[in-house]
Amino acid sequence: MEPTLDQQVMLVKGKHRYLFRYQQGSELAALDAFVALASDAQSDFDWFDAAVLSYQISKGFRESDDEVSGWDSDYGQSQEEYWP
Q1: CA dist., res. 81 & res. 48, Å (int)
Q2: Over the stretch 17-63, which tens digit does the pLDDT of each residue have?
Q3: Distance of alpha carbon 38 from alpha carbon 48, whole angstroms
Q4: Over the Cα atoms of the chain, what is R_g?
Q5: 23: helix, coil or strand?
Q6: Beta carbons within 8 Å of 84's beta carbon, 6+ residues apart
Q7: Three-state SS for 47?
Q8: Which of 8, 38, 60, 75 has the smallest count of CB within 10 Å of its CB?
Q9: Roughly how many angstroms between the first and final C-alpha of the chain, as a whole number?
């Protein structure tokens, strides 16, 4: 049985659509793929695009961290949302 590719990030840039699917826990492999694509001079995918998708992956980490840590019962939101 093949592993499920349950995570994904996507970037639309002009006529190109970049969709990366990966298994949870394989985020570093996805980041390696961004680096490889951005390093390829023949690709329209650049370092800014890699940074945008890396941010999307890190945002997923924060969201899953909120699920693990739970919500603040006094305010109904995560502490990260109301701390400076």
Answers
A1: 26
A2: 999 999 999 999 999 999 999 999 999 999 999 999 999 999 876 66
A3: 9
A4: 16
A5: coil
A6: none
A7: helix
A8: 75
A9: 46
